[in-house]
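Feature request, filed as a ticket because there's no other form

It would be nice if the structure record came with a short human-readable summary line next to the C-alpha cells. Right now we just get the raw output. Example of a typical job, pasted below so the devs can see what we mean:
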Amino acid sequence: MSVELATTDGVAVITLNRPERKNAFNRRQYDDLAAHLDAVATDENLRVAVLTGAGAAFSSGQDLKEMAELAGQAASGSATGGGGTTGFTVLLDALQRFPKPLVAAVNGVAVGIGMTILPYCDIVLVAESARLRVPFSELGVPPEAGSSVLFAELIGWQRAAELLLTSRWIDATEAVDIGLALRRCTDAEVLSEATALAREIASKSPYSTRVIKELMVAGRGSRSSDARAREEALFAALFRSGGYGG
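Raw output as currently delivered:
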C-alpha cells in the first residue's frame, strides 16, 4: 500500500509509504491518503490523526516523472492535466473537510506538497534532520495547495514571499522559528512525540475538540479554496502548453 493506517487509543497514524521514492506523491498515493483521511473522519472511535512518512523522508513532493507524463498528455489533448476528480485535487478536498485534529510528524525531507500540506495540519512537529522547500520558482510552476495564501497567513507575508520566490531550503530550527512548526524533536522521537500529543488531545472532550477545529477552520473562510482555484487554473493552462513556465 502507498499509504498505511494504524490505530490505537483513539489515534490514527497515517504513514506515506513509498520510501523507495522518498514518499513522492503519485496519483495512487494522493487517492490513498484521501481515502484514509475520509475513513478516519467517519470513524467514531478515532479522535485524532497523525501524518508521517516511512523511511528517511516525509515526502519529496510530486512524482515528477508522472507529472511530466500528465503534462504531455494534456498537451496532446489526451488528458486534462491538473485537477480532475482523483489525485491532487481529491486529496486537498479531503484535507479541507477533515473534521478532526491532524498532527504532522515531519520525519525528514519535505518538498513541494510535502511542505504545502503542512498548513492543513493543526500542529506540526519536525525532526532535527528535516529540511523543507517549495521549489516552484525553480521549476517554473505556480504555487500549489493554496500556499500562495496559506503560507502568508501562517508565517507572514514577507517570509512566505521569500520562500516561494527563492525556492530555498529551510531547516527544522527555522521551521519552528517562523511558525511553520510547533517544535523540533530528535529524529528518533518525532513520531512518538506526535503520537503522545495526539493521545493527549484524544483524551479531552470530543465535543470541544470537534468544535475547536470547526471554528478555527471556519475562521479561514474561503481563502484556501479561492487560492487553490487560482493556482489550479494556472497549472491547467501550463499543462496545456506542454511545458513549464519560463
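Something like this underneath would help us a lot:
The radius of gyration is 17 Å.
Residues 223-241 form the longest helix (19 residues).
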